[in-house]
Design brief:
A hairpin with a 2-residue loop joins β4 and β5. It contains eleven helices and 14 strands. It has two domains: about 5-220, P-loop containing nucleotide triphosphate hydrolases (Rossmann fold, 3-Layer(aba) Sandwich); about 230-285, Alpha-Beta Plaits. α3 (about 95-105) crosses α4. The chain has helices at about 45-50, 70-80, 95-105, 110-120, 140-150, 170-185, 195-200, 220-225, 240-250, 265-275, 290-295, and strands at about 5-15, 15-30, 30-35, 60-65, 65, 80, 155-160, 185-190, 205-210, 210-215, 230-235, 250-255, 260-265, 280-285. The strands form three sheets. A six-stranded mixed β-sheet has the order 6-7-8-3-9-10, sandwiched between helices. The structure holds adenosine-5'-diphosphate (ADP) and magnesium ion. Magnesium ion binds next to α1. The site of magnesium ion has 4 residues, from α1.
Length: about 300
Amino acid sequence: MAIVIEAKGLRKQYGSFTAVDGVDFSIHAGECFGFLGPNGAGKTTTVKMIHCTSPVSAGELYVFGQDVREYPREIKARVGVCSQDNDLDPDFTVRKNLTVFARYFGIPARLAEERASSLLDFMGLSDRQHSRIKDLSGGLMRRLVIARALVNEPTLLILDEPTTGLDPQSRHQVWERVRMLKKQGKTILLTTHYMDEAQILCDRLVIMDYGKILVNGPPAELVKAHVRKEVVEVWGYRPELVDHAREKGWTFETDTDRLFIYTDAAEQVFTEIASKHVCDRCTIRIAGLEDLFLSLTGRELRE
Ligand SMILES: Nc1ncnc2c1ncn2[C@@H]1O[C@H](COP(=O)(O)OP(=O)(O)O)[C@@H](O)[C@H]1O
Ligand SMILES: [Mg+2]
C-alpha cells in the first residue's frame, strides 16, 4: 500500500523545550490514522509539521514521498486542514469563507462557487450560507472548517480535534462525513480526545505522551496486546476487597469509590467477589481503548 506520510526520528524543539521527541510512524493511502494523547502530548505540533506550517527541528518527514523541507508548496496544495481552533474569517459569510479560501489555491472564481455549493450541501450548511460567523454555533463552525479543508479537493485530510466541544448530534454528523470521505478514498489523519471516536473511525492509531509515541497499531489489537480482555468494575467496594485482590495477584486499580480488575477470567473473578464480598454493584465489561489510554498515560490531570 502506498505510504502517504512517513516520519523517522521526527523532532520539534521550541527553544530548549522538546515538543516532539523523535517519533516514527507511517500512514498509508486510504486509511484513517489517529493521534491520541493528553493535552500537550505533541499532536498539534506533529500535525503542523506535516502540513508545513511549522518547521521540522530534526529527523525526516515525507508527505506524498516529498520532503517537507523542500516541497512545502506542493504538499500544501494536496492537503486539507481542519485546525484545532476555528480560525474562520469573522468578516465574511459562511459561503465567502469558502470562496476566499479557494483563492489561496488559485482556484478560478466560478469553480470556487461550484465547490462552495457542493461542500455547503455536503456538510449540511446550505441554509446558513449567508450567515455571519459570529452567529454560528460551535457545531456549525466546526462543519464549516471541515468544508473549508475540502476546498482544494485534498487527497490527505488532517482533522485536529474535529469534534471537541460538540454536542452529540454534531459529533455523529461529523463522524458520518468522515466515513463518507474515507469511502471516497481520502487519507485521513485525525487527532482526538474521544476514545469512542478513535475506535469508530481509526484503522490504526498512536497514543502519544510528552512528545513520544507509546503505542502504534489498530485499536482492537492494541487493547488486546496491552490490556486484559475484560474489566470487572466494583462500585462501593470495601477495603477487604483491595487486600483480597492483592493476595490474588490481580491487576487492579481504584478510584474514589470503584475498583477495576483487569482480567482474562472475568466470570471467575466476578463469582469470587460476589460470594465473598459486599459491594453496591459489580459489573463485567469488555476492555476498551480508554482503559489502554489511562493505563499508559495515567489519571493525573494535564495542563
Ligand atoms: N509555539 C509554541 N511555542 C512554545 N511551546 C509550544 C508552542 N506550541 C506548542 N508548544 C508546547 O508544545 C507542547 C505540545 O503542544 P501541542 O502539540 O499543541 O500538544 P497537543 O496538541 O497534543 O495538545 C505543549 O507543551 C505546548 O505548550
Ligand atoms: Mg492540539
